[in-house]
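Standup notes, protein team

Yesterday: finished cleaning the Paramicrobacterium chengjingii set.
Today: Sensor-like histidine kinase SenX3 structure.
Blockers: none.

Input for Sensor-like histidine kinase SenX3:
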Amino acid sequence: MDATWVVLLALVLGISLGAGFAVFVFAAARRGEQVQQVITPSVPDGVDQILGVLESIGIVLDASDNVLKASQGAFALGIVRSERIAVREVQQIADEVRRSGEAQTRTVRLESARSGDAARVLAVRAAPLGTRYVVVLANDLTESIRLDEVSRDFIANISHELKTPIGAISVLTEAIESSVDNPERVRRFAEKMTAEADRLAALTADIINLSKLQADQALHMPELVSIDAVIDHAVRDNAVVADARQVTIARGKPTGLTVYGEESLLAMALQNLVSNAVQYSPDGSRVGVGTRLVDDTVEIQVTDQGVGIPKEDHDRVFERFYRVDGARSRNTGGTGLGLAIVKHTAQNHGGEVSVWSQPGNGSTFTLRLPVATGDEGISAPTSAERPERTQI
């Protein structure tokens, strides 16, 4: 009997110890899962998909400010590095959200790590995501701010440029009224009024053309365009002014090259380049227009023997209303928009324009455009047919 009680007691004790050990193991496992969740928390459902389609910058932070998820833009701008926010101002916004429990919105200026690059301006908004996370969203305002500044400058420049011919016409009108008894003076004032009216018309036309070029991201009526025809048009339009100043416009031999685009736009662009070359060339000098094929690019070069352009002005000459010599440009009837029109025409055709110049050695403007290939319905010249560099 005593032996039976001993066996039963041992059995109960074994069951109790086994159950207690099992409870201990289960509790330890649960604790380990909780610790693992703290160490490697998961992102709430749907956040991955949202960050994947965001065009703006998106970041999700855990309770320890580790970056759980971030959009590509956050890495590209250097906001996130090594799973942490690398921009102090952005981290401060997230910290404020944790302290207040409310969404925060601020503007952050992000300086570029590379010298010469413009700083970026971000609109940053951070808010709680559940009880443990913080989500940070940012929109890049840099381009919209730049466009606003350009628009303001454009309006200011237009107002300034229009004042001159309008003011001159007003003064000349009064002068004619006071000179009705002097036919010679009336004739002279009328000629000046006509010149100012022509200048006002040219400025208005350039403003309209430039506005269209900047507004349109694609060509409306693309077609195969003969470069020879475009050059003929530009030379012909500037012949009268060139002859009056005894400036010779020399052009290279026809090449038969074609590009894909709108002939009227390309003719306007090249006409502006040739016109500038004639205007800034001394009397009795020479302007050259040459064409060559470099790989898959048509290069049209316009060279003058003028005073040249300082190196610091090479990029700025393509800005609207920028003039290296403002007084001379006005005297020659320039609007200050010609090279801006050339730049935007080139960009709309998938090309570019550049300038080489040295003070005292003249200038060479090069318009580069993609050559038309078989995809546009015409074969590019073979190596044997490709023109050599034209001497101008």
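Follow-up from PR in the comments: Residues 32-40, 326-332, 375-392 have pLDDT under 50 and may be disordered.
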